[in-house]
């Protein structure tokens, strides 16, 4: 492969890297000393332009191939996922205009782009070495983004906790990868799977799978690896928390699915209630069950909306794990639909929180009192997003959960033993509705202490409205996204049975 072909395959990543340099250079030169609002507007515009340029390239120049004998894979499915990740980053950049927590504007937007660059490589990587490098690139950027509000002790605490827990999780992941390499002598996921076909119950393999799930479980905030999430969501600048909740979760679940179904496809096991067998399915079933219970029940006691969204994210990790446990093409599509629409939904919710926090100085439930009268647009977006998170039809969250449950049932007899997990998920969905309604009750029923209207930037209103429309659109016509994902998966893996 010559350098021209290599550049074409990595064009979206190259565009993002050039945008990063442009943002840093512009902020350090002709924008130096200018008003912070102008600097944020220019940096956000450049970030959005870079993301849209990368999306344009992917859409109009759909070049596919394997780099370095399969180390990086560029296929239709990774390209669709990259487009969604870039959209989430562009929306986050525009929502950042509502905040003013740092004078280091160029560095902040640069870290957003650097984290997204890590996400894109996570999606394409099918080699444990490049997977680890991509994860660390994204993680280190997110650690800094979480602690970027230097004048806020909660932000510093959030960044420190995120870094310490993340460093420990990375160590577990690296040990797990080293054991997989020691057992197989391979670093490519497909070759690892081929070498462990005869030893699915090897004790070292079980240890390796456990360590890998520990590392990746941290990234998706699954119980018991979720301790960082509430403090980070609450203490980090709201745009940073939004990117962690949306883009990071999508990239991490995509990577987890590939790791399990490609690299460890020969060590599946069984999580059936009366037929447990060693493998990664029973481990994920345990993580999913614990995440559903802890996330939903703990969210009931929260008075901070950002902490409530953090525990909600833990619960949603439990729902999304059902798609991985299904271990089928339908499960993969259901998982991607769920985490993609969840990304749009939670980004919209965090956008509303950012505005309320800027106007009132708080993200507590009381700060949302009278929101429907102070800003009908914000209240409408919050209404759509929270009801979608609760799984109310005809919004995207309902069909996301429906597809996940259907994927488990369609997978056949081996997965029917996981029916207990589906029943648990359905029951706890009803619980989640209660704490989402607590926020909506403040917004639509409670009287505000002061009936002063909120001032919202036009760009923020536009982004929030578009996010809410996406949630409604993919709820009313889910096939718009599902059919695209199915076609992409068929093109990427033509041997799969659908």
Structure summary:
With 498 residues, this protein is an all-alpha fold. The chain has helices at 3-9, 11-28, 36-60, 76-95, 105-124, 128-146, 153-184, 189-195, 203-220, 228-235, 238-263, 280-299, 305-326, 329-360, 371-374, 376-390, 396-410, 413-416, 419-444, 458-476, 479-492, and strands spanning 65-67, 72-74, 270-272, 275-277.
Question: How does this structure look, described?
Answer:
Helices cover 74% and strands 2% of the residues. With 498 residues, the chain is mainly α. The protein has one domain (3-492). The strands form two sheets. It has a two-stranded antiparallel sheet with strand order 1-2. The chain has a two-stranded antiparallel ribbon with strand order 3-4. A hairpin with a 4-residue loop joins strand 1 (65-67) and strand 2 (72-74). Helix 2 (11-28) packs antiparallel against helix 3. The radius of gyration is 22 Å and the shape is globular. The model has no long low-confidence stretch (mean pLDDT 88).
């Amino acid at each position: 492969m010559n350098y021209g072909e290599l550049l074409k395959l990595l064009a979206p990543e190259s565009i993002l890297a050039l945008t990063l340099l442009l943002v840093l250079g512009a902020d350090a030169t002709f924008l130096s000393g200018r008003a912070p609002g102008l600097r944020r507007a220019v940096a956000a515009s450049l970030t959005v332009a870079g993301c849209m340029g990368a999306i344009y390239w992917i859409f109009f120049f759909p070049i596919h191939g394997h780099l370095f004998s399969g180390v990086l894979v560029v296929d239709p499915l990774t390209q669709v996922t990259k487009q969604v990740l870039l959209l989430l980053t562009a929306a986050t950049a525009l929502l950042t205009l509502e905040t003013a927590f740092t004078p280091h504007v160029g560095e902040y937007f640069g870290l957003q782009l650097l984290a997204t660059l890590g996400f894109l490589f996570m999606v394409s990587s099918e080699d444990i070495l490049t997977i680890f490098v991509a994860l660390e690139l994204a993680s280190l950027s997110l650690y800094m983004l979480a602690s970027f509000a230097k004048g806020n002790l909660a932000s510093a605490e959030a960044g420190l906790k995120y870094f310490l827990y993340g460093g420990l999780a990375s160590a577990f992941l690296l040990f797990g990868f080293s054991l997989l390499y020691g057992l197989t002598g391979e670093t490519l996921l497909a070759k690892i799977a081929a070498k462990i076909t005869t030893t699915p119950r090897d004790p070292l393999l079980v240890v390796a799978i456990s360590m890998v799930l520990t590392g990746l479980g941290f990234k998706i905030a699954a119980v018991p690896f979720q301790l960082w999430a509430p403090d980070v969501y609450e203490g980090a600048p709201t745009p940073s928390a939004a990117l962690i909740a949306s883009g990071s979760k999508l990239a991490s679940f995509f990577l987890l699915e590939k790791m399990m179904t490609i690299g460890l496809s020969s060590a599946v096991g069984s999580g059936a209630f009366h037929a447990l067998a060693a493998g990664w399915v029973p481990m994920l079933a345990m993580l999913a069950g614990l995440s559903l219970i802890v996330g939903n029940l703990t969210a009931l006691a929260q008075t901070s909306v950002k902490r409530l969204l953090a525990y909600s994210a833990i619960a949603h990790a439990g729902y999304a794990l059902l798609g991985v446990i299904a271990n089928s093409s339908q499960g993969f599509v259901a998982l991607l639909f769920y985490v993609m629409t969840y990304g749009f939904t939670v980004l919209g919710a965090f956008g509303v929180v950012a505005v309320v926090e800027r106007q009132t100085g708080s993200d507590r439930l009381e700060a949302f009192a009278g929101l429907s009268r102070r800003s009908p647009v914000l209240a409408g977006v919050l209404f759509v997003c929270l009801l979608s998170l609760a799984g109310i039809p005809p919004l995207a969250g309902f069909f996301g959960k429906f597809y996940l449950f259907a994927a488990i049932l369609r997978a056949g007899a081996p997965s029917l033993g996981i029916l207990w997990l589906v029943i648990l998920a359905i029951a706890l969905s009803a619980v989640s509705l209660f704490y989402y309604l607590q926020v909506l009750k403040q917004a639509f029923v409670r009287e505000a202490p002061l009936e002063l209207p909120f001032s919202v930037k036009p760009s923020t209103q536009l982004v929030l409205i578009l996010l809410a429309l996406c949630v409604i659109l993919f709820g009313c016509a889910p096939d718009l996204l599902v059919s695209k994902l199915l076609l992409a998966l068929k093109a990427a893996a033509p041997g799969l049975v659908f």
